[in-house]
Design a protein that fits this description.
Layout lengths: L2 E5 H7 L4 H10 L4 E4 L2 E7 L3 H34 L7 H7 L4 E2 L10 E14 L3 H7 L7 H23 L4 E12 L7 E13 L1
Parallel strand pairs: 4-6
Antiparallel strand pairs: 1-3, 2-3, 5-7, 6-7
Helix pairs in contact: 1-2
Length: 203
């Protein structure tokens, strides 16, 4: 069985991979490779090169995802400990808020509340003549207006989750949604959606 040695950087370039990731996989024992004279080589079976390449890419992807997850966890934990969220990317925050539970109830099924933290709110303002559109679309309530309201709810609840995350809450209970039309000046026809609830820590 012939086993070819490929110089890592050239091999990575030819296969749209990152050389440093392959080197880390070799060092960690994930794949077969060797260092000689300051250069790294990956060893791949000639007859199974395509299969080996696919496995190599999968291992590299898993390794990279694990490293990213660990790094993100460190960033999140630092932000929770210090209260400094300005340095945390929006992408990481959006991933983290998926763990925040929202409910209109006073309790959470299967969960025990350790303590109530505080009341939190989130607001979103939409610059559109929503009520005028509503009157024009009254015969087709499943159309544009409903779509706009759905998007508004998703946005404001996402913002509420962020507020909960920033103060160390695990969930928000007793959520209430309030729609208000803003009027006066240049605000005529604008819609403000306010979400409020009690942020809590779970046991």
């Amino acid at each position: 069985m012939a086993v070819f040695r490929h110089e890592v950087r050239r091999y990575a370039s030819q296969n749209s991979m990152i050389a440093d990731e392959i080197i880390e996989l070799i060092k960690s024992g994930y794949i077969d490779g060797i260092e000689e004279g300051g250069e790294w080589f990956v060893r791949i079976d000639e007859k199974k090169e395509q299969e080996a390449l696919l496995k190599l890419k999968i291992k590299a992807s898993k390794k990279l995802n694990k490293q990213r997850a660990e790094k993100n966890n460190e960033i999140i934990q630092y932000a929770k400990d210090t209260g400094d969220w300005e340095s945390v990317s929006e992408q990481i925050i959006l991933q983290e808020i998926q763990n925040i539970i929202l409910t209109t109830s006073f309790s959470i099924s299967g969960k025990e509340i350790e303590k109530e933290i505080e009341i939190i709110t989130a607001e979103c303002v939409y610059g559109m003549n929503i009520f005028k559109d509503f009157l024009n679309a009254v015969r087709d309530i499943s159309g544009t207006v409903q779509s706009v309201l759905r998007d508004a709810r998703k946005t404001v609840l996402s913002e509420l989750k962020k507020e909960a995350l920033f103060i160390g809450a695990d969930a928000v209970i007793s959520i209430d949604l309030d729609y208000q039309e803003l009027s006066g000046g240049n605000k005529s026809g604008m819609l403000m959606l306010v979400a409020s609830g009690t942020a809590v820590k779970l046991k």
